[in-house]
Each structure stands twice: as structure tokens, then as C-alpha cells.
Amino acid sequence: MSKHIIKAIVEKDIRATFSSKKIWVPMFILVILLCMIVPAIIAYCGLYTGVFNNPAEDIEKPINSVIQSFPDEAMREKLAALPTLGSKFVYYFMNFMLIPFFLMVTIINSMVIASNSFAGEKERNTLETLLFAPVSIKELFVAKVIAAFIPTIALTFGAFIVNILVLNFISYSIIRELLFLNVTWLLLMFWVIPALVLFNIILSVLVSAKVKSFQEAQQFGGIMVLPIVGIIISQASGLFFLSSLILFLIGVGLLLGNILLLKWVTVFNSRNNLFESQIH
Amino acid sequence: MNLIEVSNVDKAFNDKKILNNVSFTVKEGSINGLLGPNGAGKTTMIRLLNGVIHPTGGEINVMGYDPQKNGDEIRRRAGIITESAALYHDMTAWENLSFFARIYGAYDVKRIDYLLQQFNMVQHKDELVGTFSTGMKKRISLAKALLHKPRLLFLDEPTNGLDPEGIKEVIQYLGQINQEEKVTILICSHVLHQLETICDSFLFLSKGRLIEKGTRLELEDKYLSQVYVVIETGLQLEGNTFMEFAFRRIGPNRLEFCLPSKDEIPVLLTRILQVSWVHSCEITNRSLESLYFKIKGDSNEQTHH
């Protein structure tokens, strides 16, 4: 594998991603809205207004019972010690309910970029030009995966850093603990999300190399978002908590999946069958 | 030395035969025309030679490599312009050329500058390729194909979509590249008269079969059983034969003679010059197109018998 070739394709692809408004605008909107604005509003309303403090009794009761039966002891004590229901909610939201937001946004963003990788080249007839060049199929796939990985991760990490600054600024005076700088979040950001993004990108790139158009690639990709939606629902209803151990194991599982997928990609995609199936 | 050797190559897609027992060779330094109607298998042949698809049977050798096993070695040494393969429209001419130069491991600013100058595109180098006319895109494609100083250049319908001026330019560039950079060229086309002046030898494909091959001279010797010559002369004649050659008057000072071979031309001219003047003499039935129809007609007869 040639580093120069991979670097050239990665740079070209990243430039293409950010020169196409239909790709980067929705990505930024999604990140800013779900990972920055929503938590900031929730934190502000929960801590400085009474919006969450005077709920009907039938809402307060189950929330308190969830707190009492919380599996993590340190967390339970911290929740119980917080003064208002609003601050309890904010603390709970920032530590648990925001996680699936990050997962979902990162998954969707990586999918949008990766769906465009082969399908976009094909729609513009440049895939043929690349296949006629001395670029190995492995180099092409690796470059495509890296080119989707870098902007997605950069965007997610960017949102994470903004959250650390903004939300701690909003909430530290009341909660008295730095949010996001704990094992769960750090494990999520630097272990699970990279592995998940990689898994999703390899899958999307593979789909993108097999289908006929960008739209088709995105539709296939949609199927992959469903499990995440499932986690959100179960998370919100308190059935399933993402503990550090579970997060770690999810990361391990995804990495194993990545290795298998990559092997599969190189076995089933020769230049010959890529060309015969994609170029007419 | 042969740069391309193809022997008994077959290619089928889903049981449909696209190429059938094709064999030919291409000499180093030559310009070759691969001719035939749409659907004859020309593009498939180019793809096989580049190793992007594999033959169903037969053997191919390009610059000493088997395209099926060492395709990247061939692609590294060959340049290609195909009808559908495109440049990146959202990148400038310069960005396109530097991207492909890096892909071919031949990034050299001087070379890119030189090619932009050669193809008269220096003033457009910072414009998006998407805004270019077909002719301008074709010139950038040619520059792209030559970035890495290839030994061999494949062109699939290089003049499609170009205006007459553009066609003339491309043909002229190809001749120039062949002379200056010693590049061996294989051109696929169905527009025969454009290649007439530039190609050293021709390959005729029809329905996946190679029906004839050879230099212009060889093909003329084989297929021109009669030569039609239009002579501009003051010769005044009665009847319809002169020196046993049939003729007809096609203008006040123009006579068309039908001769059994080209060798008779000097004999005829010497005789005419003894009694009158001659201003021009032109063979009218040697165009590539008329040869092509003759060859195609003959091959059809063979398949019918």
C-alpha cells in the first residue's frame, strides 16, 4: 500500500465533502442542534428556571424511584444530594441521556459521508478514472474509510470539547462537579465512538461500492441507525444503562466486527468485479 | 518490438460473447487505430488491455506484463482517456492534474506546467473543470494521461463531442506526442476519416471479431482491385476508353479513370502529358471509409459462405 496514494485520495475526498453543501450543511446542523444547543437549553432551563422543578406528582414519583434504585452507588448519592428536581434531571441527562444523541449524530454523519464515497465517484464517472489508475483496491477502500472517518470524528470531538466548556460553565456553580470528564464519557468518546464510526463507515463504504446511487447507499445506511434508536428508547425508559463495562465491551465487539468486515471487503471486492458491477 | 500482444482472446458477459478469438500485435512507437462500429467490442478490448476486467480466454501481454496479474504495472506505464471516465468537476484544472500526478506517483510541478502550456490551458488552470467546454475537458484529460510520461497511450473515442476544430487539434496533439515523447498510441474510434492521416496501422473489429488488420498500404494492396483517379487535364477525348482504361468526364477539365492498380497511374500520366497538361491527380476510392466498407463486405461474405 502506498501512503502517497492514500493521502492524495483522502485529501481530495475531504475537500469534496466540505465543498458540497448538501453534505456538510446537514452534518453541522445535526451536531450543533443535538449535541450543543439541546443540552445547553436543558442545562439552562433545569438549573436557572423552574421548568423542571414543579412537575405533577405522577412524574416526580417514578423519577425518584429510578434514582433510588440506581445501580451505581456514587451516582445515586450524587443524584440524591442535588437540591432540586431540575438539577437532578440535568445531571442525569448530561451523564446518560446525552450519550445516545452523540452516538446517533456520529452514526448519521459518518453514513452521509461514507455513502457518498463510492456512489459519488460513480455518479460523476470518476470511479472509472480511478480504476484505470495504478491504485490498488485495498488502497482505494482504506483511503475512502479514512476520508470519511476524519471529518466525522473531528466534528464529534469538536462538539464534545464545546460541551465540556459551555455546559460546565453553565452548571458548575450548582452541580459542583465537572461534567463529561468521567470514565463513561471518556470511554465513549475515545473508545466506543471511534470503533462504532469505523464499523459504520466500512459497512457504508461497502454498501456504497455495491449499489447504484448515493440515495440507495443512504437508504441501506438507514437500517444501521435503527439499533441506536433502540438504545435511545431503552435508555430513556430506564431499562438499560450504559455502564463503563458495557461500553468497553461494545467497543471490543465493534473492533472485532471491523476486523472481520475489512477481511470480507478485500476478499469480495476485486478490481474486476468492482468494474464489471459498477461501470457500464 | 511489440508493445502489445493479444492472442486468441475471448470475453463474455453473462454468456454473451463480446470478443471472439481476437489476436493482434502493436509495435512500439506506432499509432494504431482500433476501428469498428458501436458495440464491436473496442472499449472492452481497451479495458482488457488495462487489466480492469479479465478475459474469459486467451492471452494478453502489455509491455511485458499480464494485465490480469500485474495490472498496476501496466496502469503505471500507460495513459488512458476513455469516453466516460471523467475528471473532478468540483476541482480546478490544476487540482485535477496535481491529484492524478500524485496517484501516478509522478508529482512534478514543472511537468504539469509544461502540459498546461502544450494544451493551451495555462490561463484556465485555476478554473473549475465543471465550467469547461468539452474541448477544454478533453485537453485536460490528455494532459492528465501524459502526466507520468507513459510509454503507451490508450484513447477511446477521443474526438467524441468535439467540433471540427477540436478534432483537428486533438489529432495534431496525438501526432506531436507520438513524435516528441515516443509514445505508442492505440486509438479506438468509429469515425474513420479522422484517423486516416494519423495511424500507421489499423485493426478492424466487427461484432467482437477482428476482421482485418494491417498498414494502410497492405490494406490497399489487398482490397483495392480497382483504382479511381480524377485527373485535372486539358486532354480532349472522344468515346469512353483511353489506352484501354475506362474513363468518364466529370467536369470541363476533369476526367475520372478506372485503373486496375496504382502502378498504372504513372503510365497513364506520362501518356497524357505527351499531348496535354495535368494540374492534379487524386485517387478517390482509397479513403479509410471506403476500405472499411470493402473489408466489412468481404468479411460478411465469408461468414455467409
Number of domains of chain A: 1
Count all strands of chain A and give the number: 0
Helicity level of chain B, as a percent range? 25-40%
Give the count of helical stretches of chain B.
10
SSE succession of chain A: HHHHHHHHHHH
- Report how far apart the termini of chain A are: 28 Å
Instruction: Average the pLDDT over all residues of chain B and give the rounded result.
Output: 91
Transmembrane segments (chain A): 23-44, 89-114, 145-171, 183-208, 220-240, 246-265
GO cellular component, one term (chain A): plasma membrane
GO molecular function, one term (chain A): ABC-type transporter activity
Keywords (chain A): Membrane, Transmembrane, Transmembrane helix
Protein model, in words:
- The complex is a heterodimer of chains A (280) and B (305).
- With 280 residues, chain A is mostly helical.
- Chain A has one domain (3-278).
- Helices cover 84% and strands 0% of the residues of chain A.
- Chain A has helices at 3-19, 21-48, 57-68, 73-81, 85-123, 126-131, 137-175, 183-210, 214-236, 244-268, 271-278.
- In chain A, helix 5 runs antiparallel to helix 9 (214-236).
- Chain B has a 6-stranded mixed beta sheet with strand order 5-6-7-3-8-9, with helices on both faces. In chain B, strands 11-12-13-10-14 form a 5-stranded antiparallel beta sheet, with helices on one face.
- Chain B is 35% helix and 30% strand.
- The radius of gyration of chain B is 23 Å and the shape is globular.
- Chain B has helices at residues 42-49, 71-77, 93-103, 109-118, 134-146, 164-180, 192-195, 216-223, 264-275, 288-304, and strands at 2-13, 16-27, 31-35, 57-62, 78-81, 152-156, 184-189, 201-206, 209-215, 227-233, 241-242, 245-251, 254-259, 278-283.
- Chain B has 2 domains: 2-220, P-loop containing nucleotide triphosphate hydrolases (Rossmann fold, 3-Layer(aba) Sandwich), CATH 3.40.50.300; 225-283.
- Chain B has 305 residues and is α/β, with parallel strands linked by helices.
- Chain B is built from 10 helices and 14 strands.
- In chain B, helix 8 packs across helix 10 (288-304).
- The A-B interface holds A 2, 4-5, 7-9, 12, 15-16, 19-20, 124-126, 128-136, 271-272, 275-276, 279 and B 13, 47, 50-54, 71-73, 75-76, 80, 82, 84-91, 99-100, 102-105.
